[in-house]
């Protein structure tokens, strides 16, 4: 009700002013010519001012009086005023405001609003026309300006003279009355007729005005109320993301609102204000919202030319339209004009001129998606508004008339069919091209001409501005030339929205609206230099492996390992013109004329629902294409058939109604086929493969410094692979296995209050970097050999450090099985990993395959991997990643303060040990490709089964970083983690340029260094220094209390007697023996896992012979006592040695027996005789690597380090790599199967040739 009364008061006040002018005009009409011979009444008539006062008093005393009546009365008088002014305009006379003729004693002229910059008058519409047009053609003469400003009218003297003459004529008429009585009577009749006619016209006019008034009142009554005091609550202002150096990273805004940053009037240069006022509304500082003379002139021009009325809006009207009539501002209607006028009156009444022009300059659209002068200055010049030159101000002022035409830049898709060679290119990348255009030039000159004409600038300033090189000044902000939004901007936006929702109890839509239009300032953690560096390397395809190992069917479609089609070859979907054809077996025509498209072939059929609208989508399945040797994936597409024609049958197939085929002609059955072109389907964006993602993370404060979510992708809200989970492969080992094992040692000691020595004596494993793990085969529940190492063999005894450095899968599994799933999962959670699947279903992550080898159900994201690894270098403190530090409003008030949360995930000593082991993994282990000069690198590779995913995760003293490479679907990479390591190294080296060489935290007080034997993890023993391979003593770090005591000395080295011919423990049948130093393996591996090659070890030969005890032989009989087949060659001599193959074990095991004892063995145990070799008279099992074949007697798989006897001659290929004094042939040949010369880490080499295989 109050709003309605307020509207009535506004209209009534304004119409009273108009009524005052109407009364003055009526007085002038009465005085200017005798319409009646009647004597004027002696009764004193109230003045116009008195009548207005009386009416206003009556209005407040009688609220029940109809507002429509008053509005009609006022509008009738206003119409009369316009008619009189129009008469003068159309008659060629200068029109003056109605109140100019009123006697000065009746009403004082309104004081004009002061112009801070003293504007003058409007001049021609173009500089070129200014010289030729006469002053008569200018809509607003200077005299009219003086009148509107409230100066006395010269016509007053003429009107007073006319009045005097009238009185004199009246007196003369009275003196000669008898002579002219008949003439008077005749004149009276004539005047009465004229008066009647005038009265009729007035009555009709009043009726019309009443109707119009009622119509206007109805419009105003239904027009939403406004509050100009809260004008900036309505002005949407884009939010800004700043990088970690305070530079603008990106603008956030509603797509319907565009870019806008609001400024106060005092922040706007006077040249910029004057430029806009000069070209848009030069009477702005004087009028009350409307330029009536300009309106009437525009009407006259419209009537003459026949063109629509235009160019009449003042700055206030434009502001009203931009603020309150945004949705209908382009609609030409009387309703909108009335609403606009209503809002204009309110704005002029409630706001100062400075506030109006300030709001106007903050809202005006200036092209390139920029709203307001601040956004435009940044968009075109990368400047603050305060830095703009006069020429740049004039350029901006020239844009509003036609933003598309007069904008100095235009942006195109880089792949658009445009001849960029003929254009002035400002900026170009793989996605967008920005070009310069000078269409604004003529209008900018006009702006400067107006400014000079109105006295705002001198002629010299104008010429200087015209001479300025604006092409050189054009420096479009890269963030505003395109609609590209980086992965990081999307991520920080989502984080801010979530925090606003929580902090201020907002809905998601409310928080998003606040972010897009609230002018927030988001201070992010991103380092733009690092971000651009990473993007540069990601843009180079040479840094990535290729997709070459495609499991293709006969048609070239890519299949998975189960031979299911993953991607259809493009040529199997579309012809060279892009046409798609449904084959006869992919659809059928039904009796009613409809057509059924079968799902499951090359198309899918989905039911979709959005905003209550249900549709059935016909989509192409995923596609691939190879262009210039680069593999691209297309995630299908949609056939554009309107929803009203589509349904699904009970089998999920698409049914297209018969009506569809009658309504169109592009989807028709011809020759049992349906073919349609590319105009009728839409393919999704093609993405290069393999894809990749990277995170660079400051583990000290939690800041994300760089985020790459994919390769060669554009757009907003894209699939961000840096936040998506992928199987981590071996990169999980330091997290879920080794750090968890080291931490468990401390926890067990604290819980039991026992020393490590006591616990070891009880059989409890206390894991340390020196703990020895036997790399020997493991059988899974199915009796299968699992897991395999990346080097496809086994290496026997290795320390835990060596197991990390060489990424030994078997040892990781053994450690994880010892500590248990719960310990592994608990450590992952402490390290911020949230994607572990602990469900009770049969498929979960509570197993060694997931926790030790990274074969997780969901996987881990690169972001979480980078943060987890950062914990090691951060002394065991996990720092939660953050994307921003604070959010403020535009006034600087803090809305959100964001500090990274920290958690002590592990003991600082454990963190130190892990950092040091990961450091030597890079410097001495398989991750050498990740190393770079200038910094100390630590980290770990990871590769999943079938080379689907490749990782390197590592850290420097400054940052941790994770890099993942893989295909979006399960296609094998041509290379694995080595490619990831090399790219990681390139990017991180570039990101560390200019930084001093850092160092990791020093060893904490609870870490000590102790010398131990590498074969046992205990203190050096009697034979440690006598090992034929050299002294096996090493210096290793220990958590204080876990180190071996002085009494815990090495027991692995033993002196044994071996058979000289075989190299194994001697049996009674051995003719030649010798005593040598060997290493004792754990008993369980010796008993259960014979028949494998122990590479790079110096282990004891097995002690089994044909005279072994029954219990031992039972272990050899095979799984579940499998029955063996025996075939005995009849032509063998009794002393021939037979090779017996036991194929019931996890791998082939071969034994050599003399024939004279063979029958007894076969009778008791059974075996398969395969072939005859040699003439041995001793019996002993032979260690056999399943990838190596014995092709002759005595050709045992000799390890390079294992010396069979003192007389054994070390082969040249061994000496060339192991003996620094080697002087034999260069590049000696390595026999097939002898040693692991091609394996990374052989003789201490780095992983430069092979990749992990989990």
Blueprint (SSEs and pairs):
Blueprint: H1 2-32, H2 48-61, H3 67-90, H4 127-130, H5 142-148, H6 155-175, H7 181-221, H8 231-234, E1 239-242, E2 248-252, H9 270-280, H10 292-305, H11 315-324, H12 334-350, H13 353-363, H14 373-381, H15 390-398, H16 403-406, E3 409-413, E4 424-428, E5 432-436, H17 441-453, H18 459-467, H19 470-473, H20 487-504, H21 508-517, E6 521-524, H22 528-538, E7 551-552, E8 558-559, E9 565-569, E10 580-582, E11 587-589, E12 595-597, E13 603-610, E14 613-620, E15 623-627, E16 630-634, E17 637-639, E18 646-648, E19 654-656, H23 658-663, E20 669-670, E21 673-676, E22 681-683, E23 686-689, E24 691-697, E25 704-708, H24 733-752, H25 756-761, E26 772-775, E27 796-799, H26 800-805, H27 809-819, H28 821-830, H29 848-851, H30 862-873, E28 877-879, E29 884-888, E30 894-897, E31 902-904, H31 908-923, E32 938-943, E33 949-955, E34 960-966, H32 977-991, E35 1007-1013, E36 1033-1039, E37 1053-1059, E38 1073-1079, H33 1083-1088, H34 1110-1116, E39 1137-1142, E40 1149-1154, H35 1155-1164, E41 1168-1172, E42 1180-1181, H36 1212-1218
Parallel strand pairs: 1-6, 9-15
Antiparallel strand pairs: 1-2, 3-5, 4-5, 6-29, 7-8, 8-9, 10-21, 11-12, 12-19, 13-14, 14-17, 15-16, 16-23, 17-22, 18-19, 20-21, 24-25, 24-34, 26-27, 28-31, 29-30, 32-33, 33-34, 35-36, 37-38, 39-40, 39-41, 40-42
């Amino acid at each position: 009700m109050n709003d309605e009364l307020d509207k009535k008061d506004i209209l009534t006040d304004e119409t009273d002013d108009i009524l005052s002018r109407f009364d003055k005009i009526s007085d002038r009409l009465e005085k200017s010519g005798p319409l009646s011979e009647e004597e004027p009444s002696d009764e004193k008539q109230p003045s116009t001012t008195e009548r207005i006062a009386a009416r206003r008093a009556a209005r407040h005393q009688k609220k029940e009086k109809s507002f429509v009546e008053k509005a009609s009365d006022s509008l009738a008088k206003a119409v009369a005023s316009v008619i009189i002014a129009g008469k003068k305009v159309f008659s060629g006379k200068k029109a003056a405001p109605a109140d100019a003729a009123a006697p000065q004693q009746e009403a004082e002229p309104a004081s004009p609003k002061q112009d801070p910059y003293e504007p003058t008058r409007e001049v021609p519409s173009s500089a070129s026309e200014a010289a030729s047009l006469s002053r008569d053609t200018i809509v607003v003469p200077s005299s009219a300006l003086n009148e509107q400003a409230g100066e006395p009218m010269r016509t007053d003297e003429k009107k007073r003279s006319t009045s005097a003459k009238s009185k004199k004529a009246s007196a003369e008429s009275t003196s000669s009355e008898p002579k002219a009585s008949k003439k008077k009577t005749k004149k009276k009749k004539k005047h009465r007729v004229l008066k009647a006619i005038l009265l009729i016209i007035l009555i009709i006019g009043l009726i019309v005005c009443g109707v119009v008034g009622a119509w206007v009142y109805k419009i105003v009554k239904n027009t939403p109320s406004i509050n100009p005091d809260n004008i900036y609550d309505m002005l949407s202002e884009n939010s800004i993301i700043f990088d970690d150096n305070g530079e603008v990273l990106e603008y956030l805004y509603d797509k319907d609102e565009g870019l806008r940053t609001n400024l106060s009037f005092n922040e706007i240069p006077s040249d910029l204000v004057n430029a806009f006022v000069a070209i848009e509304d030069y009477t702005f500082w004087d009028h009350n919202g409307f330029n009536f003379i300009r309106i009437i002139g525009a009407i006259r021009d419209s009537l003459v030319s026949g063109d629509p009325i235009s160019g009449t809006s003042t700055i206030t009207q434009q502001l009203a339209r931009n603020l309150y009539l945004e949705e209908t501002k382009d609609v030409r209607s009387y309703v909108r004009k009335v609403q606009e006028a209503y809002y204009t009156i309110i704005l002029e009444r409630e706001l100062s001129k400075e506030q109006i022009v300030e709001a106007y300059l903050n809202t005006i659209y200036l092209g390139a998606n920029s709203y307001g002068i601040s956004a435009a200055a940044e968009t075109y010049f990368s400047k603050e508004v305060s830095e703009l030159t006069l020429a740049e101000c004039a350029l901006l002022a020239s844009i509003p008339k036609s933003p598309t035409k007069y904008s100095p830049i235009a942006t195109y898709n880089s792949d658009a069919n445009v001849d960029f060679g003929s254009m002035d290119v400002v900026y170009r990348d793989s996605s967008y091209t920005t070009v310069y255009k000078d269409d604004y030039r003529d209008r900018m000159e006009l702006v400067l001409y107006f400014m000079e004409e109105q006295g705002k600038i001198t002629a010299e300033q104008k010429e200087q501005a015209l001479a300025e090189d604006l092409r050189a000044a054009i420096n479009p902000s890269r963030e505003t030339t395109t609609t590209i939004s980086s992965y990081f901007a999307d991520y920080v936006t989502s984080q801010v929205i979530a925090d606003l929702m929580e902090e201020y109890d907002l809905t998601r839509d409310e928080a998003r609206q606040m972010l897009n239009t609230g002018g927030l300032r988001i201070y992010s953690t991103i380092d733009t230099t690092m971000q651009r560096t990473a993007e540069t390397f990601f843009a180079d395809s040479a840094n990535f492996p290729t997709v070459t190992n495609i499991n293709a069917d006969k048609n070239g479609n890519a299949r998975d390992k189960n031979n299911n089609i993953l991607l259809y070859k493009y040529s199997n979907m579309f012809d060279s013109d892009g046409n798609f054809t449904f084959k006869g077996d992919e659809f059928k025509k039904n009796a009613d004329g409809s057509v059924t498209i079968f799902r499951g072939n090359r198309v899918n059929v989905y039911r979709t629902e959005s905003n209550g609208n249900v549709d059935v989508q016909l989509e192409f399945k995923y596609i691939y294409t190879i262009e210039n040797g680069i593999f691209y994936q297309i995630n299908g597409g949609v056939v554009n058939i309107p929803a009203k024609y589509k349904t699904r049958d009970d089998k999920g197939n698409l049914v297209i109604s018969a009506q569809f085929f009658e309504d169109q002609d592009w989807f028709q059955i011809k020759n049992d086929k349906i073919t349609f072109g590319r105009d009728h389907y839409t393919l999704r964006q093609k993405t290069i493969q393999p894809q990749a993602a990277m995170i660079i993370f400051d583990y000290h404060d939690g800041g994300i410094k760089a985020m790459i979510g994919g390769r060669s992708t554009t757009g907003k809200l894209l699939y961000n692979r840096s936040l998506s989970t992928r199987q981590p492969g071996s990169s999980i080992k330091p997290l879920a296995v080794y750090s968890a094992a080291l931490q468990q040692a401390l926890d067990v000691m604290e819980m039991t209050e026992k020393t490590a020595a006591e616990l070891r004596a009880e059989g409890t494993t206390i894991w340390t970097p020196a703990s020895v793990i036997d790399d020997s085969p493991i059988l899974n529940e199915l009796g299968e050999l699992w897991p395999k190492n990346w080097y496809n063999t086994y290496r026997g005894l290795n320390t835990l450090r060596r197991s990390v450095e060489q990424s030994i899968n078997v040892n990781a599994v053994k450690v994880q099985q010892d500590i248990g799933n719960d310990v592994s999962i608990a450590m992952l959670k402490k390290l911020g990993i949230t994607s572990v699947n602990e469900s009770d279903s049969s498929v979960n992550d509570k197993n060694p395959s997931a926790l030790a080898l990274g074969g997780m159900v969901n996987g881990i994201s690169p972001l979480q991997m980078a943060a987890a690894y950062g914990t090691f270098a951060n002394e065991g403190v996990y720092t939660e990643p953050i994307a921003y530090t604070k959010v403020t409003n535009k006034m600087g008030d803090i809305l959100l303060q964001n500090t990274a949360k920290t958690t002590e995930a592990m003991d600082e000593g454990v963190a130190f040990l892990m950092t040091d082991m990961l450091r030597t993994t890079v410097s001495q282990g398989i991750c050498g490709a990740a190393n770079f000069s200038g910094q100390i690198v630590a980290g770990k590779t990871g590769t999943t089964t079938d080379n689907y995913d490749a990782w390197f995760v590592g850290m420097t003293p400054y940052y941790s970083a994770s890099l993942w490479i893989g295909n979006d679907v399960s296609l094998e990479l041509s290379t694995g983690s080595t490619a990831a390591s090399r790219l990681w190294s390139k990017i991180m080296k570039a990101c560390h340029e200019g930084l001093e060489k850092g160092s990791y935290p020093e060893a904490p007080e609870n870490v000590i260094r102790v010398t131990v034997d590498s074969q046992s993890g205990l203190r050096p023993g009697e034979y440690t220094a006598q090992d034929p391979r050299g002294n096996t003593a090493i210096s290793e770090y220990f958590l204080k209390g876990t180190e071996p005591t002085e009494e815990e000395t090495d027991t692995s080295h033993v002196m044994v007697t071996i058979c000289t011919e075989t190299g194994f423990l001697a049996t009674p049948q051995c003719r030649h023996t010798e005593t040598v130093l060997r290493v004792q393996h754990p008993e369980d591996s010796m008993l259960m896992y014979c028949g494998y090659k122990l590479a790079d070890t110096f282990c004891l030969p097995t002690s089994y012979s044909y005279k072994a005890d029954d219990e031992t032989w039972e272990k050899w009989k095979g799984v579940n006592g499998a029955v063996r087949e025996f075939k005995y060659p009849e032509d063998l001599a009794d002393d021939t040695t037979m090779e017996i193959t036991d194929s019931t074990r996890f791998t082939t095991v071969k034994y050599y027996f003399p024939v004279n004892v063979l029958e007894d063995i076969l009778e008791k145990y059974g075996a398969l005789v395969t072939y005859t070799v040699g003439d041995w008279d001793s019996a002993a099992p032979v260690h056999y690597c399943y990838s190596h074949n014995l092709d002759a007697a005595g050709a045992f798989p000799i390890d390079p380090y294992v010396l069979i006897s003192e007389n054994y001659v070390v082969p040249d290929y061994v000496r060339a790599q192991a003996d620094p004094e080697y002087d034999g042939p260069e590049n000696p040949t390595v026999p097939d199967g002898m040693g692991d010369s091609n394996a990374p880490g052989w003789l201490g080499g780095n992983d430069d040739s092979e990749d992990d295989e989990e």
